[in-house]
Amino acid sequence: MRRTIGTCYYPEHWPREMWARDAARMAEVGLTWVRVGEFAWSRLEPAPGEYRFEWLDEAIETLGAAGLKVVLGTPTATPPRWMAKRHPDMFAVDREGRTRGFGSRRHYDFSHEGYLRECTRIVTLLAERYGRNPYVGAWQTDNEYGCHDTVLSYSPAAREGFRRWLRARYPSAGNDGDIDALNTAWGNVFWSMEYSDFDEIEPPNLTVTEPNPSHVTDFRRYSSDQVAAFNRRQTEIIRAHSDAPIAHNFMGKETRFDHFAVGADLDIASWDSYPLGFLDQKLDVDPAYRRRFARQGDADFQAFHHDLYRAVGHGRLWVMEQQPGPVNWAPFNPAPLEGMVRLWTWEAFAHGAEAVLYFRWRQAPMAQEQMHAGLLRPDSADAPGMAEAMQVAREIEEAPDVASGRAPVAILFDYDADFSWTTQPHGRGLDYFWLVFDTYRALRSMGLSIDILPPDSIDFRDYRMVLAPGLVHMPDSLKSALANSGSTVVIGPRAACRDASMRIPVPLPPDLPGMDVTVASVESLRPDMPVPLAGGGAATGWLERLEGGATVLETTHTGAPVLVAEGKLHYLGAWLDQPALRRVLGELCRASGLETLDLPDGVRRRDTGTERFWFNYDNEDHLVGGLAIPAVGFVREELPR
Ligand code: GAL
To answer: How many A from CA of 138 to the centre of ligand 1?
Structure first.
């Protein structure tokens, strides 16, 4: 399959006279895909029941006639103003009890039945009208679920939905739910929190001090299920009318809903990649590193998401939005170094992306995103990103296609674990995502390619090494699948430490088959109190006291066990810093027959089925094992056989 590129276009923002010229230029520069429609509800239905689809017909026809393929977005992330009049209670309510308002986007509550019916209606109309349109080659549901902190809502609609969800989760013989089962599961005898009816239960906000972690975790699960159900409603409608694949555009570091659950209803997982915004806004890195990569982004962050979403999409990955120049939303928004747009695009391809679409075609002269670059300037002249998009288009034509391939190392990623970490971090800054990311970064710095797997994986046979950091909930089936996999397995820290109801299990964790290790107690560490390991590096943030007869492989400087093993099964009882992770995991890799390197910051390698890509995010050339990798560039070579 040929990789493709594309762009995000808003015909409703521009006079009709411009559409044909835009379409011709898109085709001329080598774009294949154009995403349209995802925010256009007020133009599709300016008043309730008053439809204006002709302009979209014409826009799709114009793009298609120019040889382009359309990704049609459902407009449900931006309900028009009249919708709010019709459903005044459709807004989400934040943790402080404040109702969110109209005037930007994502102003809806996933639990609001009235709004769900409106979404069903508009998506049905779109699917009926465009489901067999030859130019519509793919669909996108809504836009960036969770963006602007919109998964959790403490509204009356959410309260009602949560109660219904709880009745089903704690079922009784009738359909009413078993409130005693809930009281027991949550441990509500503590602080006299017992309920006598599901209707007494509120969302867990505005409590005097912290709410019960079981209550919070269940509320997060409920909220996550609402996102999946919202999405499923749309995919079912679209599928009834269209054979084109359905995608959603996920975000960078968004963990408030289970993306695997949403992905189960999609054909493609896509995500929106803004490397410079992410580095400035999301990553906690030292100031010198941030400065050094301010115009390039972090060399592991995009790769991590490509690998994660490849799993969410059952192997089918797209980048639905790719930063082509400065964005508008991070604390600071520099321009990328020349060459980065091309590098990001090829990096996505090397990680399996089928298509990369640049956001957006032309910089908007009005409204919230005036300061967000596009491929074109507002006056339609080329912006700097355009030359690189054109270069990629030429390269796709000339170079061989990228083969897919399985990595030798896998990391499990579990959104439900994140819900528990967020509910009960135990120390400021202890965040499941960053624990997994640190593990990923350490492995990547040693030149390894990685697959990320969902937590319900059972077959690990093809992996030399499997890592399961931070999996708070581990069903016995997963424990035994890992223990019997034949791979080198590293479980922990903080693994299997809560049951599904967020209670500490007895026997104490991790309770792994065939391994004599018990986490006797845990502590969180202040940032200024790392605990050095005997062999170098340190435990930071989190440390467990391990007991039992398993073989001790690593200890703290005072001799307390940190890593223990029984055959190929390992338990790690600490959050290790990068030097310790590289050392410890490096040794395990080599023992499992995996070659390791010591790559400089910014230089990373990715193997596909047939090739080896070397990417250099750094602004200087690097020599790795005799191979020169140019600054802000990449090298593509055949994989040694
Ligand atoms: C994304 C969003 C786009 C646009 C973009 C700006 O989060 O999906 O609609 O706002 O950010 O960078």
So the answer is: 19
- Phi and psi at 479, nearest 5°, equal -60, -45
The band of 640, judged by pLDDT with boundaries at 50, 70 and 90, is: confident
Closest residue by Cα to atom 12, ligand 1, is 327
Query: Which two three-digit tokens encode residue 347?
Result: 């990096």
The Cα 40–Cα 493 span in angstroms is: 46
Question: What distance in Å separates the CA atoms of residue 341 and residue 356, rounded to the nearest whole number?
Answer: 11
Q: Are residues 117 and 243 in the same domain?
A: yes
Q: Is 434 in the pocket of ligand 1 (CB under 6 A)?
A: no
pTM score over 0.90: yes
What is the pLDDT at residue 174? 83
**253/135 same-domain check:** yes
Q: Indicate which residue's Cα is closest to atom 11 of ligand 1.
A: 272
pLDDT score for 177: 96
13 and 46 share a domain? yes
Q: Is the dihedral of CA 469, 474, 478, 482 positive or negative?
A: positive
Cβ atoms of 392 and 6 within 8 Å: the answer is no
Measured in Å, residue 327 CA sits from the centre of ligand 1 at: 9
Distance CA 169, CA 167 (A): 6
**Residues spanned by the domain of 181:** 156-216
**Which residue's CA is minimally distant from atom 10 of ligand 1?**
369
**Are residues 298 and 415 located together in one domain of the fold?**
no
Cα separation, 220 vs 227, in Å, equals: 11
Examine residue 375 and state whether it is found in any structural domain, yes or no. Answer: yes
Q: Residue 535's domain is classified under what CATH number?
A: 3.40.50.880
Is the CB of 358 inside a 6 Å radius of any atom of ligand 1?
Answer: no
The token pair at 451 is: 């697959």
How far, in Å, is the centroid of ligand 1 from the Cα of 147? 9
